[in-house]
Amino acid sequence: MKKLLFSLWLLSTTLGLRAEDGHQLWLRPHQAAPVTVVVAAKNSTLLAMAKQELERNWQGAAGATVTLTLKKDNAIKHDGFRLGPTSVRATTEAGLLYGVFELLRRQQTGQPVADKVFNPSYEYRLLNHWDNPDGSVERGYAGHSIFWRKDSSFVVTAKDKALWQEYARANASVGLNGAVINNVNASPLILSAEYLGRTKAIADVLRPYGVKTFLAVKFSSPVLLGGLKTADPLDPAVKKWWQAKAKEIYQQIPDFGGFLVKASSEGQPGPQDYGRTHADGANMLADAVKPYGGLVMWRAFVYSPNDKDRAKQAYNEFVPLDGKFRDNIIVQVKNGPVDFQPREPFSPLFGALKKTSVMPEFQITQEYLGHSIDLAFLSTMWEECLGSDTYQAGPSSTVARVTDGSVYPQKHTAMAGVANTGLDRNWTGQDFGQANWYAFGRLAWNNQLKSAQIADEWLKQTFTGATSSTASASDWNTNFLAPVTQLMLASREAIVNYSMPLGLHHIMSATHDHYGPGPWWAPPKMRADWTPPYYHQADAQGVGFDRTTGGSNAVSQYHEPLAGQFNNPATCPDEYLLWFHHLPWDFKMKSGRTLWDELALHYDHGVQQVRQFQQVWDKAQPYVDAERFAAVQNKLRAQSGNAVLWKDACLLYFQQFSHLPIPAIVEPPMHTLEGVIANDAVRPRQQPRP
Amino acid sequence: MKKLLFSLWLLSTTLGLRAEDGHQLWLRPHQAAPVTVVVAAKNSTLLAMAKQELERNWQGAAGATVTLTLKKDNAIKHDGFRLGPTSVRATTEAGLLYGVFELLRRQQTGQPVADKVFNPSYEYRLLNHWDNPDGSVERGYAGHSIFWRKDSSFVVTAKDKALWQEYARANASVGLNGAVINNVNASPLILSAEYLGRTKAIADVLRPYGVKTFLAVKFSSPVLLGGLKTADPLDPAVKKWWQAKAKEIYQQIPDFGGFLVKASSEGQPGPQDYGRTHADGANMLADAVKPYGGLVMWRAFVYSPNDKDRAKQAYNEFVPLDGKFRDNIIVQVKNGPVDFQPREPFSPLFGALKKTSVMPEFQITQEYLGHSIDLAFLSTMWEECLGSDTYQAGPSSTVARVTDGSVYPQKHTAMAGVANTGLDRNWTGQDFGQANWYAFGRLAWNNQLKSAQIADEWLKQTFTGATSSTASASDWNTNFLAPVTQLMLASREAIVNYSMPLGLHHIMSATHDHYGPGPWWAPPKMRADWTPPYYHQADAQGVGFDRTTGGSNAVSQYHEPLAGQFNNPATCPDEYLLWFHHLPWDFKMKSGRTLWDELALHYDHGVQQVRQFQQVWDKAQPYVDAERFAAVQNKLRAQSGNAVLWKDACLLYFQQFSHLPIPAIVEPPMHTLEGVIANDAVRPRQQPRP
């Protein structure tokens, strides 16, 4: 008897019936059908990877033969590919790999495979990791860095390499082809020999999956690391230092991608310290990497403490420089003019820079959208931005089209996303955070994709069908896929509703690392543009930031008809209303309700939405493994409490100015304003890990 | 112009247009009509007080003459009185004072005044103050003691006296005639010359309002304070010490009420330390105060760590002693057999002690019902207990009737309430806590009063009509009085619902001083009967404490037909179900639902009730002064959050055993069990005072 039990135990462990930890992302193992793969190209590590993927995961006709062909094809751009039911053709090895992943994805998600060319929207599709040399991750909510160690160890272990390989494979599976592996608030150390050594090791592991390695650099590195007296970009010694550094890097990493630079921004050093322009600084670095085909991504996230409207400054600084950047520079622009808020209008720089390559930067990590606690499918937010029409070159000048080369003849195109990965076993802390990594990759490949399709794809690949004996697999579509897709699609708007509806922005808690409400936060001597009251401007008269022609005039940075539309509260869309207008509490909304009531209803609706998400998820239990079910259930519970906190705190705070009652149909507050403010003043307790 | 403004300011301050702090309780000043008061008795301080009340607050016919007559009247018992529209007759001075207050109450609350005798249900109507000599108050949530000072100062200030006088007047206004002014967990210090000096000063201030002073004493005082080797009640030296102490007290306070004793209980010393019985101990003390007409109140709140059912022990210890107590002893019995829980069945000692005077002890301070945060009108709880039929002398042997002398010929009758007063400006922390002080007095005077009437009376006297210019006074009854009365009447049941429904008990947090949920709390080596799992007994099979004949058999301490009714889950009332039974999670309730679903629905209903209270209160705003409106609104908000915490914590905790889903119609949890338990393990942050 004992022997039998032991055998059963052995069997069960062998079959891998272990706790589901989400580590395999959307790349879950399948019972593969037999397939023969013919590679019509010179052997390479990259092609070996492509072949292996097909052999391990083929779900098509048993015994089929699939050919991978590397061949010139004018219809194929960059690392795109041409797909057939049993063939992939491309002009690059990476293209073949992406074609293989596309073929397998279509098999798994039940999409047809017809003969068709798939070209990427952007040449560079990059993750930006805000990972520090000490292993911490700025705005990271999923554990320490996957690249750098706490003890600054430079020993590259087999475990490191295995993890990096899994990471690279996940990127490749959604078409991501580059990674900036350190924080934009860069340490000069990253350019030291030791860190470059580890960078080379990382690059070597990423390369076989077509992922190029980039580094973020500190503009003052020549001083801090090189011992020079200046980092002035026009100084010959500085130029020489960077040229030498570039050479040193490319000797070790011949396909090194290039530099990402945050300069003259939020206290970071930059060319303006020496009276030079952003163009002067960027061009100097661009010249240094040019010989090797390197790229410089120069961030436009700039603002100074004294500006009356932070939202205007990037436009004001960069538009005059249009046309003055080298052609291997891309100006990297955050999706909105302030900072990754739950909702912002698109940055007016999109489309305004007509002679400069411009790339959008999105934030995958949920700095302002609930860290790794709240469930936020960000694809809808990015889709909203990419689909926004800038009108800068006439109608249909969407953010997507003015950045992907469709409108302006950009030399290079790219899209960046601030990564949400960490050492947490499931990579992203919240299991649904994986969907944002996935969605970012898919949208960077095809900026016309719809979020509904992306959610559908991700769910089908990530949750592989009925897991409970009481649930039939045929119910899966109806009872799991459909409602959970709807949950995902509504999730970002729910967060907007319970945190910053109707165009409110930047009213989060500073003491709790941007998690939770903090509209009151304004310590003495704090620079105003870091405090919520600067943004919501609530007073007895009303609420909102007046960016109309009568106010900061930020509205004029938008092209007509937007400027006129945004400038008039009657035509300004509700979702941007308080972004552009300071309006009285009793302002009559399009709904017929007063602004105050509408605000209260939005907050309350957000809370009710999260509760509804909880119920959807509870009903999904039979279709999900116990571990991920419980993990997400616990996260939703915490989010639900957080939603109520947001609602209560903001309504009670703003009520001090409006002096109006909270409408009776809104759930009464369960917090007192005093209590919430007192708790905001202390550091949070450790969130228990579910 | 400046002069005019100054005059206006002077006028407004003179008229007393200051912030409403609730300090005046239900005794608010009125524009009195002229009245002539004729006192047909010898002048006395007490009668002067009565006369003054009439002159200051008369609301009857202007120019009326009211006579106060002290005269023998066989219909009048104790300090009762005979009332007419313009006359009060009594056999005691205190009776006249109570008659005056009754007359004024009826004028103010619009009740008719016909010729009628009003007799008190109990001879002694007492507050027990759990106030320590250092000024702290055990289970006090309204600031420090009104009697004792933090710095143990014995200086009696004019401010002290003014406060004690206000306190005594409030007591007298509802018929309370005694106060035990220190904690039952008594310090021996209270019998030292210094503390007796301050006690005399207090007694001197309380006396003119008919309030007698009592002290709680530590049984081992002869050892701790007197330096004796023993406190054995049969030891002659011990007897002598107490006799001398009694003499010392009565020399200073000739009308001193007597002693309250908590002995051989929760670690307090007592006669059992010397192998003597409770009767031995109580009788010795009774003998000491007998010559002066003093009383001994001996608490029956006893239980030992090793008993299998704490609920049984008081009965087991005291029933064999029935008839063995001196006639100036009253055994003081808590309303329920465990400890002031939100709901308990009545203590089986009521009616079972047939030859012993027994007095009920209620808890006015909200130790287990939300401190001074939650709004709990406890009158309904006391009414429920007093109205419970013990059947000990046939039907209609209610707790009220077996304690007030209607059933058994008790030498003395009394009722005690653990006070909720403190130095907080509004006396009780939560403004509605005043209603419990009021209700306790009213029920001690008349144990047949209905809570609806008490609430109506209290509201009419405490909130004196429309205060907002937009609210018409004629709407007051409909829009304020009726809904707020309903709120009060439902408030205790709401707390039962969201904290300990269906007979659950003692599952509160120990780390947060009995505020909030703690069903999990059971540190290693903690005595079991102080831990919630001892009481809820949750396991995979079910939940509840089996006190049936097949279990601890506590049920047999009740007289038939109760014992049989409680013993059978089919006939046991739902509200006591888990008090008497351990039942399976899928037990079919009278509602047709399973026990688990019923439990979940009760928790959720409690939450929804509090939210409804919030809305009732919000609508009451035009009828309440801004200060008390905001204070109560803030308390209700905090209570609302606490209700959700209770619901989430208990359902998630019990779900670990039931393994059943929370019904879909229940609001999904916003806490995680891990989070709640983690927060329970730390000391609470300071509650902000609204």
TrEMBL record, chains A, B:
GO terms for molecular function: alpha-glucuronidase activity; xylan alpha-1,2-glucuronosidase activity. Residues 114-427 form the Glycosyl hydrolase family 67 catalytic domain. The keyword Cytoplasm does not apply. Transmembrane segments: none annotated. One of its GO terms (biological process) is xylan catabolic process. GO terms for cellular component: extracellular region. Residues 1-19 form the signal peptide. InterPro entries: A-glucoronidase_C_sf, GH, Glyco_hydro_67_C, Glyco_hydro_67_cat, Hex-like_dom2. It comes from the Bacteria. Residues 428-664 form the Glycosyl hydrolase family 67 C-terminal domain. Keywords: Hydrolase, Signal. PANTHER family: ALPHA-GLUCURONIDASE A. This is Alpha-glucuronidase. It comes from Hymenobacter setariae.
